[in-house]
Amino acid sequence: MTDTTKGFAAMIAACCIWGLSSIFYKLLSHVPAAEVLAHRTLWSLVFFIIVLTVQRRLRAVFDAMAGPRGFGLLAFAALVIATNWYLFISAVQSGQATEAALGYYIFPLVSVLLGRLVFGERLSPVQLFAVGLVTLAVSLLTYGLGTAPWLALALAASFGLYGLAKKRLAVGPVVSVTAEVLLLSPLAVLVLWQTGDNGAGAFGASFRDTALLILAGPITATPLILFSYAARRLSMATAGLLSYINPTLQFFCAVVLFREPFTGWHVQAFVLIWCALAVYSVSTFRQDKARRRALRAASASATTVT
Description:
Blueprint: H1 3-26, H2 33-54, H3 59-64, H4 68-93, H5 97-119, H6 125-145, H7 150-168, H8 173-197, H9 207-231, H10 236-242, H11 245-257, H12 264-305
């Protein structure tokens, strides 16, 4: 297998785990979302520590938190990813997995807007058109349901802000996520201590619940490691296109497996968003192809001159 093929396989595997994770969290619907999140945080930390210890990179976690800027960015990233995880777990448990899928479909275009607002990145007419289609979709859904899809917007915004923080960090995703869950671990311990003090903790109550809560760590960590592996071997356009497997599988689980309501307003909104993503993806793919063609031409020119 070539490096590109390996990256392709790793990206598909990561997105499938993310996309089907709603089935896993549905099995824990009887456990409060805050308790599930606390276990997800702590068991992820254990898993990452083992991985980084084997790789002899554990010290990199503490180096990443050494300066005030790095520590501040990691603390912010930890806050927004914890918010995102909590919202997703709550959505699945409360029968709102369809809206969660909508949020992850919206996320790429939220990232485009954040890039424009924070980094001053220029939007092409095609990208502006795609953002306009998403805005129309959200407006239609708000009108049809009588309320805005706040959960979807919050998931998209929190994940977009998380990406913004990660873009400013000079460390890799595995090291940074380890630092983030390390920062979150005191809060996780506090949640579990209060839950156990009330005698309502799920951990240890049954073998099934205990095993599922422990598995929350590997289920969180494994796709991040696969994604990190894939990102180094694929172009951004390819990785971006494959990432839509995640919300597509979430959507499938919500509508087909969980039998959540899917009204005509949902149909119109999702069709508009799928159109927006198609337009945006084709534009991104063409830009990436043109960039690679320019780099090859520059490389060939430099070789000729030499």
